[in-house]
Amino acid sequence: MYSARNPKVTGPVFKKGQPDDSYKFQYPPLPSGVYPYHLNLPRSAHADQRLIFNMVGDTGGLKSPDFQRQIAEQMGLQYRLEEHPPEFLYHLGDVVYHFGEREQYETQFFKPYSHYPGPIYAIAGNHDADVNPDNSEPYQSLDAFYEVFCNTSPKTVYFSGGAARKSQIQPNVYWTLNTELATIIGLYSNVPKFGCITSEQKHWFIKELKRAAAMSGKALIVCLHHAPYSADTNHGSSAAMIRFLESAFEEAGVYPDVVFSGHVHNYQRFLKHYKERSVPFIVAGSGGFDELHVLAEVTDPQFTREDELLEGVELKAYCEGHHGFIKVAIEKEEEHFTLTCEYYTLAHNENDPAQPARLYDRFTIDLKGEDHFSCPELEGQV
Predict the structure, then answer these.
(1) Structure confidence by residue, pLDDT tens digits, 312-338
(2) Is the whole-model pTM more than 0.70?
(3) Is-contact 285 58, C-beta < 8 A?
(4) What is the DSSP string of 46-60?
(5) Residue 90 and residue 185: Cα distance in Å, rounded?
(6) Which of 65, 269, 353, 371: CA 20 to 30 A from 217?
(7) How far apart are CA 325 and CA 314, in angstroms?
């Protein structure tokens, strides 16, 4: 929690003296589908009234796989038991660690997510796209990810250990999920620590923003793995991702309703203030990897907030001590159209590991009208 002796920062930071690792960039595979890389969510009975889904990032587990198993189980309970259950899970990247290898998918994805009965969609994280030079069987970046998530038809994945879950049919490593109430644009931010997005993808993204803006009555959600804004001590904010998003938003003349990312292993909720509106930026990378990332202290000389790229951004809530996941609910009626985001944490109780997940933070966006964002005060920080 906040401490008078060692207060945490109240906004995003940049970590000083970071080396340039752009050499880690990996060229992605060719698209498995056709341009403009759209996938339509199967229509449900209440598709024009309600859309509920889970969201989580950085789930891969090596040292302590219980965390990702518990996350999957808790999301599965929401899917099975709630009156209006989630329809799917949207994964924010880093499905497996550390090099996206086929042999890691059975234990890090298929086994733990046998507890989740719904479809799973995903964008790739840096670890999903990296390549292990010491692997005895050479492979290309995203080979395994494509077989699991970007197949041309639902198929049994031969390295799944006989799992019932079939491959997903996403059309590309960057793609758009179309639903009745939301357009969800998923970006691919590659391998370098602070991300790297090609000009080709940027052109596509700007067109997708404009297309989404022309479709009234839908929420616009942007997802990418590398967090643009962060206050953590491991990564800090990504100048590359901030510049990419800001220039794309400005060129398109379109701003999303919310931006979700992973990469940083905790939960953070920022609010970015633009001239005419405010947009929440959510970090949700606490989905299972054993190492959680703490926030920087105000007096730590390794970090700075003195940069124009960080202006107008407030840290509204955070959780650095517990793994967790998100539930998003978009509801539309005659009088209101809202997006509600809830963050749930694991109890981390050794005496009762099956204790239900706890609702930690919630905010609601009013999707009707110009003044469309409101949020309660945060419950606390842990």
Answers:
(1) 999 999 999 999 999 999 999 887 899
(2) yes
(3) yes
(4) TTTTEEEEEEE----
(5) 11
(6) 269
(7) 21
